[in-house]
Amino acid sequence: MESIEFYNGHQMPMLGFGTFELTDFEECKEAVKTAILSGYRHIDTAKRYNNEEAVGQGIKEALEESGLTRSDIFVTSKLWLTDFGREHVEQAYIQSLKRLNLDYLDLYLMHWPGTDEARMIDTWQGMEDLYKDTNVRNIGVCNFLPSQLEALLAQVSIKPVINQVEFHPEFTQKELNVYLKAQKVYLESWSSLARGALLRNNLIKQIAEKYGKSPAQIILRWVYQQGIVAIPRSANPTHIKENIDIFNFEIKDEDMQQISSLDKNERFGPNPADYEG
Ligand SMILES: NC(=O)c1ccc[n+]([C@@H]2O[C@H](COP(=O)([O-])OP(=O)(O)OC[C@H]3O[C@@H](n4cnc5c(N)ncnc54)[C@H](OP(=O)(O)O)[C@@H]3O)[C@@H](O)[C@H]2O)c1
């Protein structure tokens, strides 16, 4: 599995496994286990997904079965808005670790910027404390607009390594992409498949047919060829295996551009400018 390298020299596998909406304990545990046994080395969860215990159990069972060790897996969780404020961050991190039954995270993310800029900066300062004082390997953010990142970077000493945002062929975040590249902060795509909606798109289906791949593989390969990390989610073992099988073909430039031309510059998720959970 290819990795990206953050500005701090740490690496992150380019394809991970998402766990949003996997709230049934058994289903979530089995999905995470299947993912790791199928070759995924990167798992994405959050306090807000109410599944950290199941994710942790899936990781534990997969490590036992495969002989892999904790350091072979990159695990991300996220700080929810109700835990914002510098003084709450460490406790929220420790609670996530307890639920996951892990002793460190590879990446801890602020889940949203929130609408109060002073609270956002204060919370990031708590993330910086965490990075300096604990064993968290990397800290980053989700759902930050360029203006919110600009405000953050102007006032803090440690940059986020990544911004995890809605990104798929219908919402390609052009302005944010340019800004993040200039700052050497990576973009990570959530809902790369637009929760499955884009798998029914005619152009995606045509290109999939041309390459002899599935629509999901085409979209995930399109994300990967842009140097962007994807974390597709599935509860279906066939889909889980299909989604990681994207490293044996290449989408030609003209088809990459065709897929990118689906961009409507319209998010389906909440707008970070006014989202408070
Ligand atoms: N930071 C944030 O604010 C934020 C927000 C949203 C999501 N995320 C993260 O990003 C991850 C991915 O996003 P997402 O879960 O919203 O959606 P997604 O990965 O775009 O789509 C998931 C949907 O696609 C279907 N699917 C997956 N692979 C498929 C395949 N090969 N063929 C057919 N259908 C397929 C799944 O159904 P089946 O189960 O039937 O396969 C599921 O309904 C999340 O799980 C979460 O970890 C982060």
UniProtKB/TrEMBL annotation:
UniProt cross-references to InterPro entries, sorted A to Z? AKR, Aldo/ket_reductase_CS, NAD(P)_OxRdtase_dom_sf, NADP_OxRdtase_dom
Keyword terms: NADP, Oxidoreductase
Give every NADP-dependent oxidoreductase domain span: 15-263
Family of the protein in this entry: Belongs to the aldo/keto reductase family.
- Which protein are we looking at? Aldo/keto reductase
Species this chain originates from? Staphylococcus marylandisciuri
